[in-house]
Amino acid sequence: MRKKAAEMYVDGGNLRRIARHLKIAPRTVALWVTDVAEALPNAPMPEEVKEAEMDEIFTFIGDKKTESTF
To answer: Is the pTM value of this prediction over 0.70?
Structure first.
């Protein structure tokens, strides 16, 4: 059941929906998901970064206009 809860969470389910589906408490689902996440190995990190890219979201936020124009 723990594996199923983790799979449902990774697939985009929220804790309450998963809990209702599995007929358990949402807090239990949260603890199970946390346990699974902590058991994952650390992501590999390069020793040296040669190039970094920024995405469109950064550009959009940087150029966002806050004044309304009529």
So the answer is: no
Question: In whole angstroms, what separates CA 17 from the centre of its chain?
Answer: 16
What pLDDT score was predicted for residue 59? 53
Domain ranges across the chain: 1-38
Spell out the residues 6+ positions from residue 29 whose beta carbon is closer than 8 angstroms to its own: 5, 9, 15, 18, 19, 22
Contacts of range 33-40, beta carbons closer than 8 Å, 24 or more positions apart:
33/5, 33/6, 33/9, 35/2, 36/2, 36/6
